[in-house]
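Minutes, methods subgroup
Present: GH (chair), OT, SY

1. OT presented the first of two proteins processed in the latest run. Sequence and structure tokens recorded below as shown on screen.
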Amino acid sequence: MSITKERIIIAAFTVASLFLLTGCEDRPAPNTVHSPQDVPGKLIGAIEGSPSVILAEELGVSKGFPTGVDLMYNLKTGVLDCVIMENSVATELVADTSGVRILSEPLREYELSFAVAKENAQLIRAVNTALTALREDGTLGKLLDKYSAGKKYEYISPGDAGQRPGSLSVAVSPDSPPYSYKNEDDEFMGLDVDVARAVCDYLGVDLVIVEFETRELVTAVWYGKADMALGWVPVEGEDKIAISDAYANTVHVVIVRR
């Protein structure tokens, strides 16, 4: 064997050895979540403070991260088995991230409604009347388009809003975009906030936003800390509160490595 050929063989062996020692360690484990049925028992990532955290805790071992970018990095590097989040947020995030995909089958679908104390039947009837009127005059549809399809629509309170005495306090989460969140001026924004404002305008009362974490929305109403709450209501809270007609449907999906 020539010296040159021997050196080539040794070099190739050295490169292969380095790959075995280092390269494989950097490669994430293969994806093991191929359908929502595979999610239970896994290490699941979710955005901190969002409804996804509660779902993750219900299904497996939950690990929260402050941003979607953090979630995608930890998923791609194999720290997480999968990520769950609301579909509209997931679609935008995955479009900007290579090496990940959304499972075609949704994890869970549910309706967004107002939650009111069970004994306050009059308020539930008033809210349902308002939602029906807002649906029929097109206001609710325009709001939903704004948040689901990126169409331009800005809800502006009519001039006669808040003409009746009193107000309604509404509990929302600050960490559930695009439904409820705070902007750079520390003001509440989102679909839930716009719907709450439109309902209060229809009823002729002022809107007072009260901040609670997602997991505290039901107890905020139950203990009288807010007149109403908006967003996702866990199943275990349904026996403590009354639920209005739905103002939107939402879908949670699973994101996995390709």
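2. SY then presented the second protein from the same run.
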Amino acid sequence: MFFVLSKVFWFFIQPINLSLFLCLAGIAASWFGWRRLGGAAATAGLFVLAICAWTNIGALLLRPLEDRYARPLPPPEKVAGIVVLGGGLEGAVNLARGGYELNAAGDRFVEAAALALRYPQAKVVISGGSGSLMLDGETDAATAPRLLTALGVSPERLVLEGKSRNTYENAIFTRELVQPKPGETWLLVTSAFHMPRSMGLFRRADFPVVPWPTDYRTRGDEGFALFDDDQPDSIRNASLGIREWIGLAAYRLSGRTDALIP
């Protein structure tokens, strides 16, 4: 139920859809003679779109999350396994064409391949099922072996977890699958902005992991600015930032993490 509600809620609240729904509500209200209400709704919709497209509000939302965890220095000498969270592959395209097309979060898999070369004895765990309610696509756990073996990772090292639909299930199902032993070092690879929520959930699942963030979306020195990036990237960052903060709040309120920003 949590998974379904989260997807439905996000469908309505993500900036592009919210802006459109507000404008449509404004048109409908004006049609029925509620012109002030209609004008207010349409203005709010345009305001949401303008803030997300023409300012760097998205980067400002993402930056504190990306700065929360850094890679360990020095890196661990011995690593038992590398856990890579899904979300970096184009599932629908890969299902149709049989390739391994990457999306904007594809750095997760590039970094995983680099770590696999650095730690040749470590297992490489791909945790990622289908996170979509409607779109049919290949899971990252199904696609990743084609990509990683093409990059030189032995297939015998791969451990595939393809049931999880969100980060909570990533943590639960991965721990059940690999059964980490006391004293082992496991690296967690995911997007830097997603690392705080991921660390909180893995800790709650009693799976101690070492953060290895990648896929940074900010420079780290942003202040508020207008027209700091092109509009599609600004909207994308705003959507990511809003979704991640909502996710942090939802998991904290539901008791799945022990802090708003773990």
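Chair's summary of item 2: Strands lie at 81-85, 123-127, 158-161, 186-191, 210-214.
Next meeting: continue with the remaining queue.
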